Each structure stands twice: as structure tokens, then as C-alpha cells.
Amino acid sequence: VLPSKASFSLHSILVQHYLWGAWYPKGGSGEIVFRTIPIIQKAGGNVLGRAPVQSILLDSRGRACGVSVKKGQDVVNIFAPIIVSDAGIFNTYERLLPPEARALPEIQSRLRMATHGEGGFCVFVGLRGSSQELGLEATNYYIYSDNNLDQIMRRYYNSSRDEAAANLPLLFVTSPSAKDPTWEMRYPGKSTLSIITMAKYEWFEEWKDKPVHKRGDAYEDIKKTFVDAIMQTVFKLYPQIEDKVEYVSGGSPLTNQHYIASPRGEFYGMDHDMARTQIEAIATARPQTAVPNLYLTGQDVAVCGFAGALQGAFLCTSAILNRNIYLDAMQLRKRVQDSNGKKKN
């Protein structure tokens, strides 16, 4: 959000998180999923791919009792005593719940307190040459066009679609390949960059009903204006890569909508303005819902990002088990530390 709309407490949490440094999973972010799935399966669960949830099923008493998922052309009902949704508050309440549950006063009250976060635009770059050869670093760059962040953001958001690319206020530039110590072994002589900026959903909304990769030349032309403007700044940061680019792909808010089901192409779910950290909003943002047996987890329960989503999971687990999982985690950490100390001795 704009600095003038940002919560000091939320910003402090973010800064404190990074004071200890940041981490990157060996093998890329996909490793988080690959390492988690066997744990779920070992506990008797399963993970379904390419099976998007169509709706949350309710029994005759209005309790959540399962989900319907699409598998190919068929819709399959899967029943369970407890349903946990990580789809975000808007998808869960506005799209997946049936109308009678959606109309519940508690659900509507929660939705009135929530607003969509800003949409985002991404550029993914494939390069010829290793990170070492190209001078790519395992760091994050935040590049601003001016020191007055509120002013440049307002100017950007007030731009027309055709003017927006010329008014880019900020870029986040990073090299995933430089951060991953296993990358060079897996993809020798190749490197990557990821670049992110903000973008209004409305600039791309007219193509929202078109299928991915089939949105037409006009849509691709608009995306290209953003990609070209972004790459001009990237080349100023890394001039040595200009003739090493082998692949460039841009992703609009509609891309985010397609791949991560964000309703308006937002990166981080609900908006993170000051309203989100008000007492009533915090007290209401909890895993328990007005629908019995339905729980929420993830960043819309806590705050944004991986660490925020993890907090949402801790809160959700604690609510379901009626147990303080944070204390369990602290005790587990102590046992691991004691065990490691004995091994060293």
C-alpha cells in the first residue's frame, strides 16, 4: 500500500523479519510442496492436482461437510468432518459458499471489513550464462523512480492504461537462480531474473473472460509495453545481461488470477492498509467461521507472505484442536536443541 496508508505495526513486523536475513529453499519454492506432500500422505491424507474446488458442501443443518472438485469433465464430491480453506476470504465466502451461507450476517460483516489488495505485474527472464558469469547476486533490489513514494504511486494509479508503463513507480528485482545453491548443478550455464511491480486490475479487466494464452494481440501489446519499460530499468541495473536474454514473459493481474486464483490479480490477498490492523478487524480475522466445521487458514487469517500464511496455519490448527500449537512448537524446538547439544557432546 501507499506509505501514507501503511500500518506502522505491520511494517515493523516486516522489517523485524528481515533484520535476521531472508532465506531461499534449496531447489526452489516447489520444494516446499514436494516436502509437504509426503507428510500429508503419511498421515493418511492425499493431495489432488488439477482438481479445482467448485463449491463447499453443506448438510441439511448448514454445516460444512465436504467439497465438490472438478476432475476432467466430472464433478466429484469429497466428504470430510472438517473443511479448511486456504483459498482466501473472497474466494471462500463469495465464490465457494452456497448462497444461503454467503448471506449469513457474520459472513457479510466480515466481507465488509475486507478489501482486495492491489494487483501485480511480473516479468520472468531466462538468461544465457551462469549467475557468476553474469554478475547476478543473491539479493533483492527495490528500485523507485522518485523519493516521494506516495506521489509516484498516485500518479501511476491515476494513469490510463496506455500511460501506465511510462509511469512505473517501483520495481522489485531478484535472481532466483543466484539464490539457489543447487541451480548450477541442475541448469548449468543458465540464469533467471524475476521482476515484480504493481498494476491495476482494471487496466486488463476487459480480457478477464478470455482463456489464458488466447487473449489476442491487443492484450499482448499492452503487456509488452509493461515488459519493455520494466526491462529498460533492469538493463540499467545489469547492463551486462542485455545481449544474454533468451526468454522473457510478462504476467498481468489476469495471469495471477488464472494461476493462483486471486480474484483481482492481487499478490497478497486482502489489502494491508491501516484498516486491517484495527482492533475489530484483527478480532474478526480468525480461523473460525459462521459455518460450523468450516475454518480459514493462510495469509487472510494473519498477514501476507509465506511467514504470514504460516501464522494463519498455526492459528487454524490451534482452533481446530483447541490446543496452543505455538507452545508445542516451542517445546519441540527445545527438544531438538537439547538433542543436538547431546550429540555434539
Automatic annotation (TrEMBL):
Cofactor: FAD; NADP(+); NAD(+)
Uppermost EC category: oxidoreductase
Keyword ATP-binding on entry: no
InterPro entries in UniProt: FAD/NAD-bd_sf (IPR036188), Retinol_saturase (IPR052206)
GO molecular function: all-trans-retinol 13,14-reductase activity
GO CC terms, sorted: endoplasmic reticulum membrane
Keyword line: Endoplasmic reticulum, FAD, Flavoprotein, Lipid metabolism, Membrane, NAD, NADP, Oxidoreductase, Signal
Main location: endoplasmic reticulum
Membrane topology: Peripheral membrane protein
Catalytic activity: all-trans-13,14-dihydroretinol + A = all-trans-retinol + AH2
Subcellular location: Endoplasmic reticulum membrane
Enzyme Commission number(s) of this protein: 1.3.99.23
Family to which the UniProt record says this protein belongs: Belongs to the carotenoid/retinoid oxidoreductase family. CrtISO subfamily.
Name of this protein: All-trans-retinol 13,14-reductase
Annotated organism of origin: Bambusicola thoracicus (Chinese bamboo-partridge)
